[in-house]
Amino acid sequence: MPLYSPLKQEKFNTRIQNLYSSGKSMFEIALELNCSVHKVSYWMNKNKFRRRSRSDAAYVKANPVGDPFKIKTNLTIFETKLYGLGLGIYMGEGSKLAYGSVRVSNTNPTILRIFISFLKIICSVPNHKIKYSIVCFNDANPKDAQLFWAKELKTDTSKFGKIVQIPPQGKGKYGRKSKFGVCTVGVNNTKLKKWITEEFLKQDICLDSLEEKHTLGKGESMGPSPIPGSL
Asked: For the whole model, what pTM was predicted?
């Protein structure tokens, strides 16, 4: 029976911690260290290594090399405007219910171009991570819709995949914009969605502060008025 070696155990624990921090699961660590999952779990608990939640584990699995975005700081005047427009477009036109999905749907190409620029320039999202889709009426030409959006958004037609067609609503005729359907652009990332939501809330707080200062500047004051002659 081999003697217990604190040094070997320390190296073993360090390898477990490093492998787990790199995103590997306990099962994958056990395979790499040629031991049981129970042993990995035992030493992680004994050393009080922080465990990932299921959602964190799923995120690491989906993003093995780290976050697929990086928020830009030290913005230029143009980038500051783009930052505000991007937040506003998402909070006004974006999908809020889809978990971990940052998506905006619209019939207006300009709105979608601005949002794509926000994702690429402010959030540094790689082009291949941005997803596109189209929904149009079943009496529209899917190929025409695909070509229209590819040209307007400066991307390849292959990015859109299968176009979803739905029956026209009512007997009216669609206008020029809806003729090409509704296009959706976005990226799936829980952390990015959380950042966008928190940033928007910060702007709301700032607006409340500005409105309060603006009101006070018009002659209104907080608290009791000063006693004449006391100043």
From this structure: 0.69
